[in-house]
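Hey forum,

I'm writing up a methods section and want to include a predicted complex as supplementary material. The small molecule is pyridoxal-5'-phosphate. I've pasted the protein sequence and the SMILES. Can someone with a working setup run it? I'll credit the forum in the acknowledgements.
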Amino acid sequence: MADTERSILLNPGPVTLSNRVRQALIRDDWCHREPEFAELTREINDHLVRVYRETACDFESVMLTGSGTSAVEAMMANFAPRDTATLVIVNGVYGKRIAEMLKVQGKPLHISEVNWDQPIDMQSVAAALDQHADISHIVAVHHETTTGRLNDLNPLGELCREREIPLLLDCVSSFGAEAIDVEGWNVVALAATAGKCLHGVPGIAFVLARKSLWATGLVAPGSVYLDLSAYYQGQHGTGYSPFTQSVQPAFALREALKELEEEGGWEQRRSIYRRRAGEIAMILQKLGLKTLLRPEDYSCVLWSWLLPEGYTYESVHDYLKQQGFVIYAGQGELGKQIFRIAHMGDISSDDLDRLMKALGNCFDGG
Ligand SMILES: Cc1ncc(COP(=O)(O)O)c(C=O)c1O
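Reply by user p_vandermeer:
Happy to help. Structure tokens for the complex are below, copy them as they are.
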């Protein structure tokens, strides 16, 4: 890689930062228990619920210092019931992780699982609800980053509405770039992070939940750090959080949210990601590569590609890294079968041109 060329992250977060967001990281030193940080916390929480028109009125946000997993775990700790069961929909690593969280939290759960390359099986979800009268909540992953599948939540949401079942959603790798129909899907809470489609840096995650849930729907979390009622009371009261907050990542997130808004919001970001996905798919398909899923099943955020004969993940990764691009391995059993390319971050048309050349050289037979 020439010195003047940038290193581009094509892994599913952290993302390549824009200069504007990077610059925001190196402003003043602030204490998280001073009024200016309380004001910044309010500003970010207000902005987070406005990223989607649909959440602007009825949802409130709470920020945590942690990665995406901290927000998902906090959502499950505070909003999944102790006395009734939660049905966990699993078609990848992140659904499985949520089931583990509930087990660790000692909460009743049932699991509706399909192979990781399969869509949600609505028949088995409906059967689980019929069979287990103790299910009161459902939790699902919106974009299952394991494969890149954008789970179709319309049928699941319809079922949730019909049966009046609240839906909890892991939106860690979709928030800011895919549609989230909180009304149509009966979503009461969702978890997400600064460091993926919002183009902030890792270190801040957040939970958006309906106002009614913050008021009366919290469950004793069995955790000190992940007690969202303490964060809610602090951030929406005095403005202060119970624990030390990630100050510089908050500067970056404020800037990233402004940038997203100025660039046209999540819908525009989705168009940009879709364009990148299309360009990358065109060259890889021309080179004979095949996708793990049907192209129409993918999110705009990330696609998974089958490794062609004669290539290992390491060989592809190392070659592309040398050319300035970081791709991502498959997880679990998919580790030997696929590689993943994410489309997030500040990627210019020059970067994309370089990527096309690098992919061409990597897969043109050696
Ligand atoms: C859908 C989904 N949920 C949860 C996570 C966990 O986020 P983190 O690695 O930031 O803890 C990820 C990470 O990629 C994800 O894609």
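Some notes you might quote in the supplement: The CA atoms of residues 111 and 144 lie 16 Å apart. The longest helix spans residues 265-286.
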